[in-house]
Amino acid sequence: MSSRNNCQRRLDVRASPWDLRSFNGRWHYYAWITDPRLTLIGSWTIDDATKLLELYEREKEPSGTTPELIGYAKRLHEGCVHPETGCRIPRMVRFSSVPIVQTALTAAMVTFCRSMPQVWFWQLVHNGYHAYVNQANGNGTAPRTPVGQAVALGSATVVASVVAVPFKATLSRALCHSRLNVCHHRFCTLIPLTVVMLSQAVSVPLSRQYELQHGVEVHNEEGERFGASKAAAALGISQTAISRMILFAPSMLLVPLMTMTLQRQPFLRRSKFIIPAIQVVVSSALFTLMVPLSLALFSPTARLDLETLKKFDPEIYESVMRSTQRNGFLSKPIPCTHVYFSKGL
C-alpha cells in the first residue's frame, strides 16, 4: 500500500460524477454506464473493479492507483452491478447490452417473420428478453424467490405476446385493409408504436409483480428506513413503464414511416435485402441513442409524498411519524414531506 498524500483530494466513490437531479446530468450519467462497449467486460474484471472501490473507500488501495482508474472502476461497477443486491447483472440484460441484443432481435423479426407461427415465436422471444431486462434491473429490496421470478417472467412474456399479436392483427385488418387508402398511409405506420406501448404497459408490472405484492423499501433523506411500501412500488413501476415506451417510440414510429418511403423507390424494391438492412441499421442507431435518454426521464431515486403514503400504506406512514417524534419535532411542522426509494431502471 502506498503512503497517503494528505493534500490529495480523494474521490467520493458513492457520489455520481453528474448531478442526478437534472435531466442533463442523468443523461450524461446513463450514457456513461450504458456504453455498448461495456458488454465486452468480463465478470472477473467487474469483480476486480468492485474490490478496488471497496479498498479505496477504506483507504487501502494498491500503490499507483490513479483517479482515472477509480473512475473506470466506478463506471464498471455502476453499469454492471445491481445497486441494491450487490450482484452482477447478467451480461445480456445490462443496459449496455440492450441495443446489441435489440439489433439482433430486430434483424430476426424483419427476416424471419413470414408466417403466423414465426410471428408468435419471435414475439415471445422479444417480449421474454425485455421482461428479463425489466426484472433484472428492478428494485432489489423487494423479497423474491426463484419460483416467483420465473412466474413473473413467464407471465409477462406470455401475456404481453397474447396482447400484442392479436391486437396488431386486428388493427391491421381494420385499417390497412380498408378501402380508404388514406387510412393506410396515415394510420398503419402507427400500429407498431401502439402495439409496443401496449405490450410494455403489460410487461413491466408483470415482470416486477413481486414488488407490487411485497412493496419496496422507503427511507428519508438521511437514509433511515421505514419499511416496504406498495404505493412506492406502483409509482416506480409506472415510471419505468413510461420510460420503456419512450425507449421504443422513435424506432417504432420513424422506421415504419421510413420503410413506406423507401418502398416507393423502384431501385430499392428490386432487392429483398436492402430495405430490411436499412431498417435494422436505423432501428439500432435510434435504440442506442434512446437508452440513456429514456432512462434519464426520471431520477433513479424516486420520491413519494406523505399524503399518498398515508392513504395507501398507513403503517409505513405511522412509522415515519414515530421517527419524526423521536427526532424531537413534536411541536414543529413536520420536516419530512416525502419518502424516497429506488425505482429501478
From TrEMBL:
The keyword Transport applies. Pfam families: SFXNs. One of its GO terms (biological process) is serine import into mitochondrion. GO terms for molecular function: monoatomic ion transmembrane transporter activity. The chain crosses the membrane at residues 241-262, 274-298. Coiled coil: none annotated. It comes from the Eukaryota. InterPro entries: Mtc. GO terms for cellular component: mitochondrial inner membrane. Keywords: Amino-acid transport, Membrane, Mitochondrion, Transmembrane, Transmembrane helix, Transport. It is a multi-pass membrane protein. It is found in: Mitochondrion membrane. The keyword Heme does not apply. PANTHER family: SIDEROFLEXIN, SIDEROFLEXIN-2. Belongs to the sideroflexin family. This is Uncharacterized protein. It comes from Bemisia tabaci (Sweetpotato whitefly).
